[in-house]
Write a structure and sequence with these properties.
The chain is mainly beta. The chain is built from one helix and 13 strands.
Amino acid sequence: MAQFWSTFLKWMDNLQTLQFTGPASIDMSTSTGVFKGPLGGVINNGGSQTPVVVLTPGATVSLDPTKGGTFTLVPAQAETINAASVPTNSQRISIVITTSGTTSYVVTFGTNFKSTGTLTTGTVSGKVFVIDFVSDGTNFNEIARTVAM
């Protein structure tokens, strides 16, 4: 718990550099604490949004919503993305999927997701899809999806 308070005090020292446009919260379920900014972004003890989280491709992909608000994936096969934990109510995340190669893959949204359906990447390399979700406290619900860009 001492490490949590040390991290918290460092975070508070940096608070003056942040400009929130929404609520922030502190998750004390870990010894160091997780500081969540508006729209689900996680604030690190340096006082800035955490970097984009790169997901590891595989048949089953685990997305930890406590690690950040933007996640990237370059599918290498048919993939199912599962949220590793129940999301915080109103938390928002974006998943950026980039195609590589000329094989089309199907991306499915599994545990703790409700989506409008699967995403098929197509056969053109370098295309980008962005899918946005917002949490109802139980699932991440899809609110927007781009076509291949």
